[in-house]
Queue: 4 jobs
Job 1
Amino acid sequence: MSHKDKLSKVIKGFGVVYFLLNCIICVVMCIFAVQAWMTTGMSPGYVVFIIPLMGMFSGYWIRIGKFGWWRSLVIAGSFLILTAILLTAIFISPKMELLKQKKFESAQKAKSLDTKINPPKVE
């Protein structure tokens, strides 16, 4: 088996994995969109549904090996958006939680110091 055949199989396998990953993301996003719609009565979640749908098409096109200029553009956009979402979820969200926790702790500390300096008035 030549290197070209191995590479072709790897690319097709990646297309299948990418397609399935976006199918899972699509189901999760649908669940969240329906839950938000039931809670609030309106939800723009259907707009975000475009991202995994674009990824599913990209995975399918990678699997069958059809690449045109616009398909390549959609695939590249899908990769960029998915990478941005994953980086946000993995690296930025924990840092935001840490900042929120520090802000809450400093607010609690300031409140306790204010109570010690100015005790509450009992009427």
Job 2
Amino acid sequence: MHLAVRAFLLIFGLLFVGLGAFIGVKLANEARAGANRAEQLVPASAAVVATSALGTTLLVEGTLSKRNPARFHAFVAYIREEFRGADEHGDDQWVEDERGTPPLLIETSGLVQVSNEDYALVGTHEQWQEEGLNWNSQTEEGTKRYTGMIAGRPVLALGVVAPSREGNTVRAEWLFGGTRQRYIASQRETASFLPWIGLAFAFVGAAVAYLGVWRLRHWR
């Protein structure tokens, strides 16, 4: 086996070990921290938002107001992805090519205004996809799919109190299409299985790195 190939095995294996640690430790800890944060914050009503100091971090739980206009089909906010064909391993490739995340109204014993347009959608209500699964390399057009939020459905928002001419609003960090209880459960579930995925990556990486080291030591 060529020296360069053996060195590649070692480097590739170590990268997989690092990826396993990132998934199993860092991402799992972030999911756990997200659940803890949501548990510690008491959901704020519209009255609490209106009287809170600017910059205060709040959790708002309610329903998406039906005053929010639909932007595509029934979605009042969405992420669009385009199919770009299969990769070298035969797996489907989807690339985000459009995002519609406008300011939104949340009903929670009154109305709360989410005032920004750069929030993340960490959990959505529904998905819609065009028929077929195609990628045209000549026109560079592919099948589109949308995941998004629908008015009248439960929503959870995390953000900070921000000013506006009409009063306090919420500058959201993220929106989740569900209840606070469901968000916490999903984060706990994620935190529980990520270490196993990380361990699998680390095990494969360690095996490949060991093979590279063994080959280097016995190189002729």
Job 3
Amino acid sequence: MLDDDIIDVTIEKTEDEDYEKYANNEEYDTNNSEYIEFSIRGDKYSE
């Protein structure tokens, strides 16, 4: 349950070759990545 908590979410979209480097802990060019950022806020409620 979320009680007025805020969760920040970042999604990184990468090319397949960059993801393979990321998965193998290798250096990759983050300039080729696209980011989607958003927040989710919980609201208090009473039962």
Job 4
Amino acid sequence: MKHLVASVALFILPLTSFANADSSNFSTMAVEEDTPSVCEAPRAPTILNPSPYIRNGYRAILRIMAAERWIETGSCECYLTQIPWDEVILEAEGYVTSDNPLLPFKVAELRLQADEMLATRDAACAN
């Protein structure tokens, strides 16, 4: 019986200290609004689509569009923050590769394409 009481006490003691812990520590886990650095693509807002997969596709398309503007203009200006999301959504129709509404894009391929295009831009604009 002594062992049972000791076991229960060992189990309850951490629970009481956990209950008294400051719950404000969990606020650090909250995802804050995305504020892009110097010339970084912002995350697509959740209002555009509840699916993170689709929003990631929109972000990759935004990056491709910005790189295309650099190619068109030759300007090293940051276009990532100048292209509105509604324009990205309209452009996204040209990147649909599936009839599946949950997976309309090949996001990994879009990211690679954007990475390559923006790496070329970054190299050209570094000089």
